[in-house]
Specification:
By secondary structure, this protein is mostly helical. It has helices at 2-29, 35-46, 51-70, 76-99, 105-129, 135-145, 152-169, 176-202. Helix 1 packs antiparallel against helix 8. The radius of gyration is 17 Å and the shape is globular.
Length: 209
Amino acid sequence: MEKNKKKRILMAFFGVLLCGACVGVLQKSSLGADPFTCFVTAFANLAHSTYGKIYPIITGVLLVGVFLVERHYIGIATIFNLFGTGAMADLTVKLLDQILPQPGLAVRILLLIAGVVFSSLAASLYFTADLGVSAYDAVSLIAANKYKLCAFRICRITTDLLCVITGFICAVVIGVGTVITALFMGPIIQWFNTHLSEPFLYGEAKKTP
């Protein structure tokens, strides 16, 4: 059991750091990022700040609401997410700015593909670890499961749409990457769950068919 817990913590920690790095990669591609990244970037633009500085503020505000309403969604992975994602995103952007100061379209497309694939891997590790969810993920879960406003899928589409609209109003790049993350990350996450995350955590015997 203790060994399994250590694996969960390792998966959650690595998943959060990888997620932050992928946010930076998607930002560098300038082809659109996931909805919540658009939302945070919108406020970063308004404050003339960076994603990494604004992310813990917005996530922290949401986290207070989650704590007051349905605190069982909060775990060690939630804390990793609060402090690790934004900082890792800013660091990745700085490194890529040095390595690829002015990437062409082909390189940007490769960055987009890498960002989507490895974001899916990060999410798979993070979710499979089952040590809490991000404050943003918890919002839709609470709306669907506690308040029964609508099915989780509809709640998530609604929050994602509000994030994208906010980003668009604040001059955030809304592009093909935003659409791709919405349509394709789910199936890719499931593939990683089946072929990597679950076998790593439980062993081949527990692998989902």
